[in-house]
Design goal:
The protein is of the alpha/beta class. The chain has helices at residues 36-47, 52-59, 63-83, 127-130, 173-176, 182-193, 205-213, 227-235; strands spanning 9-10, 18-19, 31-34, 86-89, 95-96, 125-126, 134-138, 156-160, 167-171, 197-199, 217-219.
Length: 253
């Protein structure tokens, strides 16, 4: 039986979660993903000046685990800068706790110790609870654009927070140009976004399997609606979670 992961505490969320090189269209960019625990590790050590031992203690993980998280975060940031990639901050394996007086700075590079894990119990949220984003296959970047009925070859995906209706659009141009494997590629795009729910029209068997493997639930048969209408149905518990694909392979319906 694998050893369970320790909770990686994240105390603040980034004000900006997406960075891209100036002058390069989104459709021409490769993205790298920095998880929230990596963002927290960078903030603690590279910005606030904590040593790794103290930062690891505040995040509730071992010094060795923290070192791996920090090294991967630095690699992601370096890859984006050196290769001119877009950097997206989202997802990961973490828990969120509001920053208390016990965890605030007492000066650059110095932190007051956390009193105990019990101090965080009332504000603890899992990463999945915190990241409530759903992905809707969409013909355009707004809530009032139609739901694109084709999951694999959708024009793009609109990431929507159903509580605030805050949105972010992901272009799906790569999948549209593929002769084969468009559904799997689209599923990988959604998985990287951190969304745990997809709203769409038709999903083929390979794409459905890929989404299920990533732990992403699927709501189907929403063609004919706008993205906003689909999200409202989701909020009102009017969408049935699918247990099987509703389209044959090869992009048919």
């Amino acid at each position: 039986m694998p050893r369970p992961k320790k909770c990686r505490m994240v105390f603040t969320l980034p004000e900006t979660r997406y960075f891209k090189p100036r002058g390069i269209p989104m459709k021409d960019l490769t993205e790298v993903y920095l998880p929230l625990e990596g963002y927290e590790a960078l903030r603690r050590v590279d910005l606030e000046g904590l040593n790794q031992e103290e930062a690891a203690r505040q995040m509730g993980i071992s010094r060795q685990t923290f070192g791996r998280v920090l090294a991967e975060a630095r690699r992601c940031a370096s890859e984006a800068i050196v290769n001119g990639y877009a950097l997206r901050i989202e997802g990961g394996d973490f828990a969120f706790a509001k920053e208390t007086q016990a965890s605030r700075s007492t000066g650059f590079g110095r932190k007051a110790p956390l009193e105990s894990k019990a101090d965080l119990s009332t504000t603890l949220q899992t990463g999945e609870t915190l990241m409530k984003t759903i992905a809707v296959s969409a013909e355009g970047p707004s809530l009032d654009d139609p739901v694109d009925p084709r999951f694999g070859r959708a024009a793009g995906f609109l990431l929507v927070d159903p509580e605030t209706l805050e949105t972010e659009y992901i272009d799906n141009g790569t999948s549209q140009t593929m002769a084969r494997g468009a559904g799997i590629q689209a599923a990988e795009t959604v998985a990287r976004s951190g969304a745990k729910m997809v709203l769409t029209g038709f999903v083929g068997p390979k794409a459905f399997t890929a989404l299920s493997a990533a732990g992403i639930k699927v709501g189907q048969n929403l063609d004919g609606l706008t993205v906003r209408q689909a999200v409202e149905k989701f909020k009102n518990n009017q969408i049935e979670i699918s247990s099987a694909p509703n389209a044959p392979g090869g992009g048919g319906k």
